[in-house]
Amino acid sequence: MINRSVFTAVLAGSLFAAGAAAAQDPAHHPGEEAVDAYAVADANAGATPFTGTAMFEAFHGQPGIDRIVDSMLDQAKADPRTAGIFVATDMVRLRRTIKEQFCYVLGGDCGYTGRSMVDAHDDLGLQPADMGALVEHLQNAMAAEGVAFHIQNRFLAKLAPMRRDIVTR
User: Fold this and answer.
1) Is 161 exposed, middle or buried (0-12, 13-18, 19+ CB in 10 A)?
2) CB atoms within 10 A of CB 15
3) pLDDT, tens digit, for every residue of 49-83?
4) For residues 93 and 33, is the Cβ–Cβ distance under 8 A?
5) Sign of the torsion formed by the C-alpha atoms of 99, 101, 105 and 108
6) Please, are residues 119 and 46 in contact by the beta-carbon 8 Å criterion?
7) 123-165: per-residue pLDDT in tens?
8) Which backbone phi and psi does 36 adopt, to 5 degrees?
9) Which of 50, 104, 119, 148 has a CA that sits 20 to 30 A from residue 112's CA?
10) Spatial distance between the Cα atoms of 119 and 110, rounded to a whole number of angstroms
11) Calpha distance 32→28 (Å, rounded)
């Protein structure tokens, strides 16, 4: 089993990135708050993508990623351990950028338009327990989608190095 605190760090990077003072990007959707400009680059996703499409397909493509991200965020907003993190978050933008990030990292034909993990999580004061709870929600969402356990672990291992850029306390 993968270390939850490592995975949590990765996930929180994406999850909380949109919650911070986000920046305007070319993929801005109606309902998103306007933000200051920043350089858009896939490198901001915080991880290099898997090669090939096997991982993307194991997550059931974009529809599966959408369901996983929506479930994960719905759980996080309902969980007393993490709900406060999302009070002032632009959830439209957050959902979009995490879906982009997951699609990109899983080897889908997606670009990532969010900020870097460091910039997105600066001043959020995320703690290891926050990341642990978010990883738990992601694991629940992946399991509900029917993503095989060994595939979940491969994804979590890919995200884990982001922890150092996300957890700041």
Assistant:
1) middle
2) 32
3) 999 999 999 999 999 999 999 999 999 999 999 99
4) yes
5) positive
6) no
7) 777 888 998 999 999 999 999 999 999 999 999 999 999 888 8
8) -70, 150
9) 148
10) 21
11) 7
